[in-house]
Amino acid sequence: MEGVVVESREWFLAAYSTDGVPTSEHLKLRTVTLTLASDSIPDGHVAAETLFISVDPYIRTKLTGTPDGLNLPQYHINQVITSFSVSRVIRSKDSKYVEGDLVLVPSAPVAEYSIIPSSGILRKIDGESGISLPDYLSSLGVPGFAAWVGIELLGEPKVGSNVFISAASGAVGMVAGQLVKIKGCKVIGSTGSDEKVKLIKGEFGYDDGFNYNKESDFDAALSRYFPDGIDVYLDNVGGEMLEAVLNHVNKYARIPLCGMISQYNKVWTEREGVRNLLNMIGKEVRMEGFMLATYWHRFGDFAQDMEGYIKEGKVKSKNKINIGIESFLDSLSSLFTSSNIGKVIVQVKA
Amino acid sequence: MEGVVVESREWFLAAYSTDGVPTSEHLKLRTVTLTLASDSIPDGHVAAETLFISVDPYIRTKLTGTPDGLNLPQYHINQVITSFSVSRVIRSKDSKYVEGDLVLVPSAPVAEYSIIPSSGILRKIDGESGISLPDYLSSLGVPGFAAWVGIELLGEPKVGSNVFISAASGAVGMVAGQLVKIKGCKVIGSTGSDEKVKLIKGEFGYDDGFNYNKESDFDAALSRYFPDGIDVYLDNVGGEMLEAVLNHVNKYARIPLCGMISQYNKVWTEREGVRNLLNMIGKEVRMEGFMLATYWHRFGDFAQDMEGYIKEGKVKSKNKINIGIESFLDSLSSLFTSSNIGKVIVQVKA
């Protein structure tokens, strides 16, 4: 690393963003000076440089100033944005960590350098495992864990189950499709372009898929793709697609609610109402929202499963890596414009 | 009983009823002649006279000709309507039953007399138990069992939980409130008149309640009644009230969907959309529809619990008993006009 005093760029909230896609009016980059000498780091803390930053849709819901659907704490004006990172320890005031350790930090500052409490480190990672560092933010990170909780713990598809996944070419959908396939199910995804449909079938293990932008009637599309109905729906979009699914559920279907990306940029009264929840009674459907914080104690089980799948070649990630911390805002907005494929990651340090 | 040949009045479906409250255009009464001699009753069947008939909202969803939300088999044109009954065996071709036995029949013809397979009998009841026969159709029947499944098996409130129940003065709400109270929770109900609010507080164990017809803003009402949020919501109405509840749920709230009486008389595209399902993610809410058929194997456990509560005076029923099989149609439509309180029952035989 450079000298003891470093310049560190960081993204902070300049103004609340209540609807639409956040812009440079809301999130701004600034440069601060950090002193990383041992005597300026508190006990139980480490100084770290950020290598890779995960860019996830839930971040958008923390920018409005008012906790909404996901109920997450909001960033204050002037506060540095946080996200899941792969970081490298450069100074340590905790005997469990030494300089050079690679660590996963679920709530790291979106900054080039930071001083963080070691209690905020999820775990060390092995740089020699043969797994690429970006994969620790995709199949082994937030989206992979979300896919695993949604499918393994809540969706519980059985051999032969018919599984539907929306936002299938996104970071969660990419992993979820492959997990479902490992379990011997039929899996079909919806996504936003013909190119992405090709991708989920060619690379993410989906049996089939459709481009929702080409379907004027989701109900009709689901009739074609699920003549035998849907047993598990991993919902990443909410709204109109969720409503259509509820017209095609089988008895005892399960709907883990992982995210509702179609709804994040609207105030709740403007969101699409789901009119057919009554179907949940007749079909005895279980719909359940989940947040990863509730399941951190299972992260070890997940990581063990997933590292095995990756090493066996059963789960592959497609990561869209944008270079430089300055690309964070564009990376975040790309999640809401259907312009991304797979997992969006910012590479902070080469 | 009268002679071997009886005249029996029965209600049948004359025309499908797709929206609105069913009328005499849709359901008609006719008189048929039945021969009840032993040699005209097949083996494994009994002839029975109907004493009391349960009148429940789900019946309305079987009159449209097209299975909808509750996914129940539809009556055909000309088919006799069926419902849960207390009946008396008058001839038996099954050694398990003798003349005079009182039996519960989940799917009995809405008729004065009928010949039914003994496999369709749920169980015998003890006329000397001290429990009134109508109670076998209320606290010990369909609505009581629905309340028990919703609260005991799915809602699982804990001591001190805040529980909300809609349609609280209806047959399910009446029992559910008392069950919740036995578990040491706070229970608040919504219902359609000030008189009913008084009733649920005075007789059904509710700590408090409100008249939804007087609340222009359900959200504001729930803020007043649940300053600490809602842990369990037993939904009997759906629509706008369900949406309001989702703005007040606590973390890990459970919403057993028992019925959606506000939605039964509309085609699904005209139903009220619920716009804030996103809240289910942040609060990690579990919403689950249920039908009693899935839980019949637990009926014995339920009946044992409930008979105990009734004998201890912990659960009381208010039954609205309409006299004569001719009152069935008016009894059914009363469920949708807020004109009934407690459990609606038709007394067929004095």
Automatic annotation (TrEMBL), chains A, B:
One example GO MF annotation: 2-alkenal reductase [NAD(P)H] activity
Domain Enoyl reductase (ER): residue ranges: 23-346
Signal peptide positions on this chain: none
Alphabetical UniProt keywords: Oxidoreductase
Top-level taxon in the UniProt lineage: Eukaryota
Gene3D superfamilies in alphabetical order: Medium-chain alcohol dehydrogenases, catalytic domain, NAD(P)-binding Rossmann-like Domain
PANTHER family per record: 2-ALKENAL REDUCTASE (NADP(+)-DEPENDENT)-LIKE, PROSTAGLANDIN REDUCTASE
The name this protein goes by in its record: Enoyl reductase (ER) domain-containing protein
Source species: Lotus japonicus (Lotus corniculatus var. japonicus)
